[in-house]
Amino acid sequence: MYVVIEGIDTAGKSTQLEILAKKYNNAVFTKEPGGTPIGSKLRQMVLTGEANSKLAEMFLFLADRAEHMQEIVLKNKDKMVISDRSMISGIAYAQNLPLKTVIDLNLISTNNVLPSHVILLKLSKKELENRLSQKEHDSIEARGIDYLIDIQNRMEETIKELNLNYIFIDASLSIEKISKDIEDFLNE
Ligand SMILES: Nc1ncnc2c1ncn2[C@@H]1O[C@H](COP(=O)(O)OP(=O)(O)OP(=O)(O)O)[C@@H](O)[C@H]1O
Ligand SMILES: Cc1cn([C@H]2C[C@H](O)[C@@H](COP(=O)(O)O)O2)c(=O)[nH]c1=O
């Protein structure tokens, strides 16, 4: 089982992953970007805004994804792998290229492997504003509310376009209710 938890910045992914880690103690917990040693270096480069070119930034994420797929997802294919973000973020955040082109590039980076379960936590604009106002912003969060809402729409479009097995959850529900909905989805 290859489970991914998706959502724009502050949607509540880490909060739910912490709960999942207590329930599924045999699962492998990982993340993109930064789930491998090379990935940690790539994460640092992208989030501090080292790349001036949007294309260069996207290729750094794709390099991270290729390494992550080979070293974490495929090496643990007999286990439950639960990842904070995935190719869905990769496709949605690479807004400057047509969806179809970015899907093809991402499929190359994952060797055509798709997640078996996708959980998308969806924020309203108001709740996103509220949550972002309470934290310091990295170079991507600094692009603003409208940018992130566009990305969230692109995440939905990507999940549907790829015909994935998914659940969309209102991220402003209580932490407990979200966690119950996730557990029910994983047990279906
Ligand atoms: N269901 C919820 N209701 C209210 N607040 C929440 C909920 N879930 C998470 N939060 C709060 O929202 C903030 C962001 O949560 P979290 O760090 O889990 O998001 P994230 O998706 O992992 O963010 P990022 O992608 O930026 O790392 C935290 O302050 C967290 O306590
Ligand atoms: C995988 C991936 C991520 N991003 C963006 C999304 C976030 O702004 C950061 C990652 O930070 P987090 O603390 O892990 O949420 O990177 C992206 O632009 N493209 C991608 O492929």
TrEMBL record:
Question: Keyword Nucleotide-binding, does the record have it?
Answer: yes
Q: Name one Pfam family in it.
A: Thymidylate_kin
GO molecular function list: ATP binding; dTMP kinase activity
**GO biological process terms held by the UniProt record:** dTDP biosynthetic process; dTTP biosynthetic process; dUDP biosynthetic process
Write down what this protein is called: Thymidylate kinase
For this protein, the record's InterPro entries field holds: P-loop_NTPase, Thymidylate_kin-like_dom, Thymidylate_kinase
Recorded catalytic activity of this chain's protein? dTMP + ATP = dTDP + ADP
Organism listed in the record? Malaciobacter marinus
Kinase listed as a keyword = yes
Binding positions (ATP): 7-14
